[in-house]
Amino acid sequence: MAKKKKVSLIGSGNWGTVICKILGNNILCNEHLYEKNLPMFVKKELYNGIDLCDIINEKKMNKKYMPHCFIPDNVMASSDLLEVTDRADILVFVLPHQYVREICETLKGHVKNDAIAISLIKGFDVYGNKLDLISNVIRSQLNIPCSVLMGANLAYEVALEMYSEATIGCKDEEVGILMKKLFQTHYFRIVVVDDELTVELGGALKNIVAMGAGFSDGLNGGHNTKSAVIRLGLMEMMSFSKMFFKDSKMSTYFESSGLGDLVTTCYAGRNHRVAKEFASNPQQTLENLEMNLLNGQKLQGPLTAAEVACVLKLHNVEGRFPMFSTIHKICSGEMPVSSFMDCLKNHPEHL
Ligand SMILES: NC(=O)c1ccc[n+]([C@@H]2O[C@H](COP(=O)([O-])OP(=O)(O)OC[C@H]3O[C@@H](n4cnc5c(N)ncnc54)[C@H](O)[C@@H]3O)[C@@H](O)[C@H]2O)c1
Ligand SMILES: O=P(O)(O)OC[C@H](O)CO
């Protein structure tokens, strides 16, 4: 009989907690394939004076980041990253993108040679002036293959078991099948494609457009206005992919990780919510709104906009990405949020 695989989960935020429910339950249903316990890394912090890790292990609930999601008994929370990942065969990364490099630094040299990874993280890495995929940071730092899972997946809806789709991007067919079996449930349906590059690009870039959708709603734009934001945003996402990632396939934008995620995030994500509040109330800063509205959860849009803007500037192509550039300038305080409507009206397409 084949040796049982050990799965380890790195991350325990809003999405990370829902994923621990899915993985924990799927592992329990497949105990012949997997070690029963699912260790989960929880960054050390106190919640109402009590260690969050202890709360998760005792109450089987992540009271801070996803309070209504039941955590299966086989999930074992720990703040010791190397203990969580010790002997792991499958490493699942689900944490805000800005922390990946530091997590990989700690893991370097401690991961099995034949381990595989999957990243559920939406964002980019910028090192010096070089923009890179998060999965590439995992691949290069840990020297293991890494597939990706992205999609129209608002965590609270998946927690409530509302029907949702997701896309796994994986070049290795066998690993793609294994990952699909590990993550799929009756309410979380997965399509596997081999274009892991564009799956990840969709997940990262839509967070910039979602900020624009929030600005539009906060400035009293209508449904037609938001449709324009989504359409122009998708065009910039595709142009960016073609320009900077030559192997990216445009057809992949029709998967859940592309158009699906873009639509859902522009209507109901955290980026949209905070951006809308900011546009209605511009004397507040985005940082304050993130802190006050999200209670420790992290916005990925403003950082991703800054990461992308850095590359556009370096290649002197900001003018070809007017929406990305304007969203970054609004997020960084270089332009007032009221200028967002002018960006739409004066988009090069309409001149
Ligand atoms: N929440 C969603 O609906 C959702 C859905 C799909 C994908 N995602 C993506 O999944 C990724 C993780 O999102 P999330 O919602 O689980 O996280 P989150 O936004 O809830 O962030 C909170 C988490 O970040 C951790 N954290 C804070 N500082 C840290 C540090 N210095 N080092 C390591 N971890 C630290 C906290 O411990 C906590 O677990 C993101 O890239 C996000 O875009 C989120
Ligand atoms: O809440 P957001 O804006 O981070 O988006 C969450 C997910 O990425 C939606 O698929």
From TrEMBL:
GO cellular component, one term: cytosol
Pfam families on file: NAD_Gly3P_dh_C, NAD_Gly3P_dh_N
Active site: 206
Keywords noted in UniProt: NAD, Oxidoreductase
GO molecular function: glycerol-3-phosphate dehydrogenase (NAD+) activity; glycerol-3-phosphate dehydrogenase [NAD(P)+] activity; NAD binding; protein homodimerization activity
Residues the record lists as binding NAD(+): 11-16, 155, 270, 298, 300
EC number(s) given by UniProt: 1.1.1.8
Annotated binding of substrate, by residue: 122, 270-271
Gene Ontology biological process terms in this record: carbohydrate metabolic process; glycerol-3-phosphate catabolic process; glycerol-3-phosphate metabolic process
Domain Glycerol-3-phosphate dehydrogenase NAD-dependent C-terminal residue range list: 195-341
Catalytic activity: sn-glycerol 3-phosphate + NAD(+) = dihydroxyacetone phosphate + NADH + H(+)
Residues covered by the Glycerol-3-phosphate dehydrogenase NAD-dependent N-terminal domain: 6-174
Classification via NCBIfam families: glycerol3P_DH
Family: Belongs to the NAD-dependent glycerol-3-phosphate dehydrogenase family.
Listed name of the protein: Glycerol-3-phosphate dehydrogenase [NAD(+)]
Organism: Helobdella robusta
